[in-house]
Every structure is written in C-alpha cells, then in structure tokens.
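Re-run with default settings, no changes from the original entry. Doing this only to confirm the output is reproducible before filing.
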Amino acid sequence: MADHPREPAIIAAPPVHDPVDPLPRHDTPADAGSDALGAATQPDSPSKTRRKREMIELQQLGERLLELPSQRLRSLALPETLIDAVELAQRIGSREGRRRQLQYIGRLMRDVDPAQIRALFERDDSRHRADTAAMHAAEHWRDTLLSRPQALTDFVDRYPRAAGGDLHALVRAARREVDQQRPGRNFRELFRALKRAITEELEDDER
C-alpha cells in the first residue's frame, strides 16, 4: 500500500485569557498618617526640654526645703504660702499625701526666685564635702601616727595649727590603748584633735 504523505500536525495555540483587572486599590502614600503619629512621637523642642528640666530642678529644690528646720526655713525670703506648705509636708506621714504635697510645693516654686535657695544648699553641700574630707584625712593620720609616731612631725608641717596641742601625749596614750586592744577615750580624742586641726587648716585655705 502506497505511503501517503502525512499532514503536518496542527498545534493549537494556548488559549489567551483576558487579564483580570486587579481589585480597585486606594493608593495610600507611605507616609500617610505619619503627621499625626509624628506629632505624638516627635521629640520635644530644645526650649520645651529646657523648661521641663527647669521644672524638675525646681521640684527637687522644693523637696530639699523639707531638710531645713523651721527657724532656718523662715530665715529665707520666701512667700508665706510656700513656707506653710513645706512645714505641712514635714508633718505628713502618709506617703501619698506627702507626694501630693510635694507636687504642690513644686508648683509654688515656679513663682519663686530660686537663687538664694540654691546658694544656701551649695554652701551646705560644700561644708558637708569639706567635713567628710577632714574626717577621712583624720582617720588616715590617726592610723599613720599609731603605727609611726615619728610621722607627727609631718602632720604638724602639713597642719601648723596642730603645733599648739599636746598631740605627742595623745598619740602615746592612744597607742597604749590599741596595744592593749582596748581603744577608748584617748583613741577617740586623738581623732577629734586631728580632725579639728585639719578642718581649721581647710577653713584658712578657703579664706
């Protein structure tokens, strides 16, 4: 049987589908709503931050007024309402009541020139630091003199005001107490004498 030529195969083209329109979309800018959010999260301006800091400092300064006895508090040129508020806060035992009273004092402080209050506490803080330094120095010198009595010459050279006292006798008596493992009156008196000489020298330096 004679071969018949094959007809070329017909390859059907893939069906063409109409593109499906996407659902309608409302374009939202990337920063939409950022204005409102930014307003809430935007850092404070320098002037606003400074005012906040000043208010906190005034609140803390007002709280420190509670440390003062009535006579000293009233020696300051403060409004009577503020003095009364501070004295009332000193008497309040309730934690919550005291907190509310301190907030009230903080508000009153906004109408007060804080310069004199700051100056008072700066003087107090300076005296406290000087007293602490003198105490540590006296402890150091007492230990040194008890282990090396000849170091008394160095102490008097450093603190000439000590030359008038009978530190030699105090050092000997304090050493006897320590040797007997019974540090007592002379041990304490040596500390006081050293601290007194150191404090007087520091006061002279400040003048």
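The radius of gyration is 41 Å. The chain has a mean pLDDT of 82.
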